Amino acid sequence: VLPENAWKDFPQLAQKIQGRSYSYLDSAATTLKPWPVLEAVSKFLTSDVANVHRGAYRLSDNVTESFESVRTQVSQWIGSQDPRQIIFTKGATESINLVSNSFRNLEYKKGDAIVVTQLEHHSNFVPWQQLCQEKGIDFLVVPVNDQGVLDLDKYEEFLKNYRVKLVSVTLMSNVLGVITDIQTIIQLAHKHGALVLGDAAQLISFQAIDVKKWDIDFLVFSGHKLFAPYGLGVLYGKFDVLNQISCYQFGGSMVLKVTQSQTQFQELPYRLEAGTPNIEGVIGLGAAISYLNKFDRSQMIEHEMGLHNLLIQELNLISEIKIFAHHLWQANDNQKGPVVSFILKGVHSSDVAQILNQENVFVRSGVHCAQPLAERLDLIKCGGSIRASLSVYSQKKDIEKLISAIYKAKEILL
Ligand SMILES: Cc1ncc(COP(=O)(O)O)c(C=O)c1O
Question: In this predicted structure, what is the pLDDT of residue 269?
Fold first, then answer.
């Protein structure tokens, strides 16, 4: 299947708003859903409903089998060896909080630290900041340069000067599209005895992930950014580290034996999955992965980055526009994904987004849940940046509509 034709699989793109078609350029916030996902979820809810891991009847066995086969699919999708290393959660945010909550139980000494970066989404920043404040340990933030590239010398300095317990880092910035050098980050962390959590919320729909090859300790992502339904996320972990993660929720499904005086818990992954899970979410995620497997990954990247490069080229022609991380786009060496942040100099970004909205071009403006990065890039005073983010269903006409709407905004606002 060619990525150029993918848009036909997304029924929402045939919808109109106020009688006109629109361009959806906010895929970094959430992706649209293709027919196979909608059909799989609908089929489950219409004719296959039963609870998982419970029943002594055919329907329940069938849904349990489908549910567990998605665990295997996810495991293969990220290069993990064993489906038991895949924990289903509510989302990337819950996956991170599940790990950070467990870190509350550790004993800390002066000189211990947690490392994050200036690129992080709040959901991979605030949990660690709060933990460090509670435990009285150092919260270290790796700075970025003006193009959003991490200062790896500073990172290494942190690792040498502190006892870093964990490095929690995004694999791709949701603001700039910058892809971090995760293999180097992991190698350095392990050399200094630190664990690494990778936030794959953005990278998951773009580049291949190989947790085994990278030797990463934890990986998190949300289904809704991978064409699947809401309220479903994944936590991957190496067996030994996952086994040390404490349960932060207790209830059904995760217990083996309960008496009045004590409880024996299940093994992984069930120990960390208390309560009835988001079954239709999991079914939808399986359908999303099957759908994506029909494409050739390099063709998908080519399609998305082709549109990305066209957008950058056009934006570069407008002297009043400042683009962030744009020098990385020429490098076809994995440094950038299909997310473009820019400002119209001297204009509040929400004013620009409002005019784009009137033109039925849907982008996001603001700090994109990454305020420390907005501060670093001096974006607070102009209301953050305008972000256009692309996906497999994006088309050339979306870029053309965006550009002509920007010219209109420029005319009105400058
Ligand atoms: C890089 C990154 N990390 C984490 C998250 C949080 O994802 P969720 O809100 O689905 O838990 C997002 C969502 O925008 C993100 O872009």
Answer: 97
